[in-house]
Amino acid sequence: MDLSLPRRASLKGRDFITLADYDREDLYFLLDTAEELKRAQACGIPHRVLEGKSLGMLFGKPSTRTRISFETAMTQLGGHAQFYTAADLQLAHNETWIDTARAMDRYLDGIAIRLYNLPYGESRRILTTMASAARIPVINMLDDGEHPCQVLADVLTVREKLRTFEGKKIVMSWAYSPREKSAGVPQGWVIAAAILGIHLTLAYPEGFDLDDDYMATARRLADESGARIEIVHDMREAARDADIFYAKSWGSRTLNQEELAARDQELRQWIVTDELLDLGNKYVKFMHPLPADRNLEVTDAVMDGPRAIVYDQLENRLHAQKAVLALLL
């Protein structure tokens, strides 16, 4: 299968750590390739473009969708995926990340890493350290700053459902969870929206601001693309006329446990219900990266109802990641 779509440059050999390293043409090249590979899979057209290639997958935290989708992606592309945790490698005996990257570089064609829940910024430092030490592509399967593979799949899903971003209102909203979760998805979304010229409404309670560096980068890119990124602190206001309502929880970097506990009842009101979605466009769709805390972030009625496209969204993790692997490896 020929993946050499007409464009100015190849993506081969590049890292996929942050979407900010990619421009509008790059992202559309990835999205177009994902659609092409998805169509090929549906039609039974062989596309084993990574025959004989191996991807090393290093997981600092377990995952359902990430592990299964990456392993399946490599199989469908004709390659092989290896799974390991730090405990499986000499990292468990204090081998450095640099030496680990150099060893993997001599055996593999790509490295994929899922690493977070370290002091903020440390996971990204490790990813960039490994990328500097290795000559092969390093792919971010989620760090403390961003989840670029999830966001690429999200954008693919939105484009499939809406057919265009122009004139559409896409909402990324905070939702309640007792568990502190990564802000990687919303931070990736502000970057993607800014690059692609998307109107994105960010909704979250006071005290749950995103990383200042991500917001500054998003504003700079939005000035170039004409994107609009709005911030509101009212879930109902955000939902009005929405075409896509995307919700997930993320942790606060400024509020302590006592402050969060004092606001618990207020924060529990940030839940997606059918009544909330009734404020949106007639055909509004609900998205969530999963796993969802049911009846905390979103009600069962929404999750299992006709507005939810969460399973189409998770399927597109497979196709988006196949595009990343096929073009970078």
Mind sketching the topology for me?
Elements: H1 24-43, E1 54-59, H2 65-76, E2 80-85, H3 97-107, E3 110-114, H4 122-133, E4 138-140, H5 148-162, E5 170-174, H6 184-196, E6 199-203, H7 212-225, E7 228-232, H8 235-239, E8 244-248, H9 257-262, H10 264-267, H11 274-277, E9 285-287, H12 300-303, H13 310-328
Parallel strand pairs: 1-2, 1-3, 3-4, 5-6, 5-8, 6-7, 8-9
Helix pairs in contact: 1-5, 1-13, 2-13, 3-4, 5-6, 5-13, 6-7
User: How do the helices and strands follow one another from N- to C-terminus?
Assistant: HEHEHEHEHEHEHEHEHHHEHH
Number of DSSP helical runs: 13
Under CATH, the topology of the largest domain is which?
Answer: Rossmann fold
Strand arrangement within the widest β-sheet reads 7-6-5-8-9
Mean pLDDT: 95
Q: How does the helix and strand content classify structurally?
A: alpha/beta
Q: Helix fraction?
A: 40-55%
Q: Which shape, going by the Cα principal axes?
A: globular
CATH class of the largest domain: Alpha Beta
List key phrases describing it.
single chain; 329 residues; alpha/beta; Rossmann fold; 2 domains; five-stranded parallel beta sheet; 13 helices; 9 strands
Account of the protein in words:
The protein has a five-stranded parallel β-sheet. The chain has a four-stranded parallel β-sheet with strand order 2-1-3-4, with helices on both faces. Helices cover 42% and strands 13% of the residues. It has 329 residues and is an alpha/beta fold. The chain contains 13 helices and nine strands. The chain has two domains: 19-146 and 316-328, Rossmann fold, CATH 3.40.50.1370; 150-314, Aspartate/ornithine carbamoyltransferase (Rossmann fold), CATH 3.40.50. Strand 5, helix 6 (184-196) and strand 6 form a beta-alpha-beta unit.
